[in-house]
Specification:
Blueprint lengths: L3 E10 L2 E11 L4 E5 L6 H8 L7 E6 L9 H10 E4 L3 H4 L6 H11 L7 H11 L16 H13 L5 E5 L7 H18 L2 E6 L2 H7 L2 E6 L2 E7 H6 L4 H9 L11
Parallel strand pairs: 3-7, 3-8, 5-6, 6-7
Antiparallel strand pairs: 1-2, 1-4, 8-9
Helix pairs in contact: 4-5, 4-6, 5-6
Bound molecules: adenosine-5'-triphosphate.
């Protein structure tokens, strides 16, 4: 059974159509990539998936529930299972909280006893490849790549089944990007986590997505296995995205 099912959603902002008849499924342990240029509707779809926005018509189900309509205890339980990694962690992390406290925060919210939190924070730091001593740093004292790992550790704190990533690597340079993408792949192999991974960059999506949907002006123009889209794109728009993505990602340096 899919973890996330979005069916025939439509969404307008005033007269402007952001999404028209978009359907998408994410199965447990799967990475679905969503590509398209700026304004194609990717963030709107992410917000629908996270229950931050309601569609005008169509349905969104996460673990068989509508994430937008949940309240109280069931909302907390679904929030724990469905997490988000934003594009700009510098904007989403509290500048007054040290990195360790930022990662401990969701543990507190979801009821982990205070005495158990330091050990779990240390484990999360290790999972995302952050040195333990960075826990004492403030966001302004961390690099873009380190901040994105802190944002990822925060998202992983509640042991989610699905993480929606909205352009999580686009502010990073190519080699840092490649290492972060490999980290996501490794996490998925170890934990069976699923990702809905949003990017304007097909080279990034190809690196980790099993299936890809190409969104243009709110409409899915093409979808299929990542390799197929890469080697045999059917739609001219996918080809144009491919041409824009000729700048290949380097192989990451392994430590
Ligand atoms: N709150 C809003 N009010 C009005 N129009 C909006 C709003 N949010 C998005 N839009 C419009 O809806 C369309 C889809 O926007 P969306 O942000 O989902 O696209 P996107 O692919 O994520 O773009 P980007 O990569 O620039 O974030 C765009 O035309 C955008 O201008």
């Amino acid at each position: 059974m899919p973890l996330l099912t979005i069916e025939a959603v439509h969404k307008k902002y005033g007269p402007r159509t952001a999404l028209a008849d978009v359907s998408l499924r994410v199965a447990p342990g799967e990475t679905v990539g969503l590509v398209g240029e700026s304004g194609s509707g990717k963030s709107t779809l992410a917000r629908l998936a996270l229950g931050l926005l309601a569609p005008d018509s169509g349905t969104v189900r996460f673990a068989d529930q509508d994430p937008y309509r949940l309240r109280g205890r069931s909302a907390r339980s679904v929030r724990a299972r469905l997490q988000f990694v934003p594009q700009h962690p510098r904007g989403s992390l509290n500048p007054a909280l040290r990195a360790g406290a930022a990662v401990a925060d969701p543990l507190r919210l979801h009821g982990t006893p205070r005495r158990d939190r330091p050990e779990q924070v240390a484990e999360l730091f290790q999972q995302v490849g952050l040195k333990p001593e960075l826990a004492r740093r403030y966001p302004r004292e961390l690099s873009g790549g380190q901040l994105q790992r802190v944002a990822l550790a925060r998202a992983l704190a509640t042991r989610p089944e699905l993480v929606v990533c909205d352009e999580p690597t686009s502010a990073l340079d190519r080699s840092v990007q490649a290492r972060l993408l490999d980290l996501l792949t490794g996490l998925q192999e170890r934990t069976g986590l699923a990702f809905l991974f949003i990017s304007h960059d097909l080279a990034v999506v190809r690196r980790l997505a099993h299936r890809v949907l190409v969104l243009r002006n709110g409409v899915v123009v093409e979808q299929g296995p990542a390799e197929q889209l890469w080697s045999d794109p059917q739609h001219p728009y996918t080809r144009a995205l491919l041409d824009a993505a000729t700048d290949q990602l380097p192989n990451p340096i392994t430590h």
